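Re: that chain you flagged

S.,

Sorry for the slow reply, it's been a week of failed gels. I finally had a moment to sit down with the sequence you sent. For the record, here it is as I used it:
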Amino acid sequence: QVQLVESGGGLVQAGGSLRLSCAASGSISINPMSWYRQAPGKQRELVAHTTTSGRTIYVDSVKGRFTISRDNAKNMVYLQMNSLTPEDTAVYYCYTNEWGTAYWGQGTQVTVSS
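Prediction finished late last night. Pasting the structure tokens below so you have them in one place:
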């Protein structure tokens, strides 16, 4: 079983940056890892994904602004978010799927003020 704990959220002005961290309780070296977000009144959406080999995928709205990275030795996944806009305001969740079982973190709130 994998436990995921996010941190790094907060309040930031438009144009600012935040770095989210996701700490996993066990090894994630064989796991694909993702960041999702859910804004009020909206469905949860995939923001960024990294494969075990480090290949990355981003939703169009964050391409060029967000960067997902992983440190398998530390069992950590990061989301560097730059040039934030109020539309990025949401709860951000760390996610992985291990042997067909989905694991979610508790989420971290990101609020971007205009």
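What I noticed first: The chain has a mean pLDDT of 95.

Talk soon,
D.
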